[in-house]
Specification:
Blueprint (H helix, E strand, L loop, with lengths): L12 H4 L6 H9 L11 H16 L5 H19 L27 E7 L2 E6 L6 E3 L2 E2 L1 H20 L3 E10 L9 E11 L2 E10 L2 E12 L6
Antiparallel strand pairs: 1-2, 2-6, 3-4, 5-8, 6-7, 7-8
């Protein structure tokens, strides 16, 4: 990552009075080598295995025998993971800026190449789990990717915490699966607490989708 935005130390619940985590703080964590070791050195491999399971489950049609066997294995695994569940403020899945999508399995994996006042440039991949139909990414999954990276662009531009107020997406062509795509997001202007942002998603020179949104800069403690 090549981030230039500075912020405060990593947030906690008391700091934000239960509100939102500033993206600028997470970016600063990577830029200044603040501890991003939550989850330990094997967390990235752990997340990748979870993503692999999601990919396989998306297209699985198991036999009764395999389904029952898998259910038993997954139940045992879930019981084991119960001991590792922490509150959202302590979870690694939003601090691990060294991992694709910060280690968050709910997001399509992406790698940020640049995040500064001029915008965000990232490489994003929609996997088999994100299938919509006919080997194309689901439109809702594309929206998830846009929302997260537009939010990053808005937060870095504003230097504060933002939340999505509106998001509009125009789908221009098929978005392929398992292909590294280029997503660029930037702020067009700010009007008080309102930050107007845009983004594009490309497969090479081909425009797959574009988005525009409105993000609101939150007051301290707002959720």
């Amino acid at each position: 990552m090549n981030e230039e935005q500075a912020g405060a130390p990593l947030p906690n619940q008391e700091h934000h009075e239960g509100g939102f985590r500033p993206m600028t703080e997470l970016i600063d964590a990577a830029a200044n080598e603040v501890d991003i070791s939550r989850g330990g050195p094997h967390y990235g491999a752990f997340i990748e295995q979870v993503r692999g399971l999601m990919d396989r489950a998306r297209l699985s049609s198991p036999s009764d025998e395999l389904a029952l066997e898998t259910i038993a294995v997954l139940k045992e695994l879930n019981d084991k993971l119960d001991a590792a569940v922490v509150d959202e403020w302590s979870a690694p899945a939003w601090t691990r800026v060294d991992l694709p999508a910060r280690g968050n399995v709910t997001l399509p994996p992406f790698v940020v190449d640049r995040a500064d006042g001029d915008g965000v440039e990232a490489r994003i991949t929609f996997r088999t789990y994100h299938l919509g139909g006919n080997k194309a990414a689901h439109g809702g999954q594309i929206a998830v990717g846009f929302d997260d990276l537009l939010g990053m662009a808005a937060a870095v531009h504003a230097g504060g915490v933002t939340r999505t107020a509106s998001l509009t997406i125009d789908y221009r062509s098929i978005t392929p699966l398992n292909t590294e795509l280029r997503l660029r997001a930037w702020a067009e202007r700010r009007d008080g607490r309102k930050v107007y942002v845009r983004a594009t998603l490309h497969d090479g020179d081909r425009l797959c989708a574009e988005a525009n949104g409105l993000f609101i800069v939150l007051k301290p403690g707002q959720q």
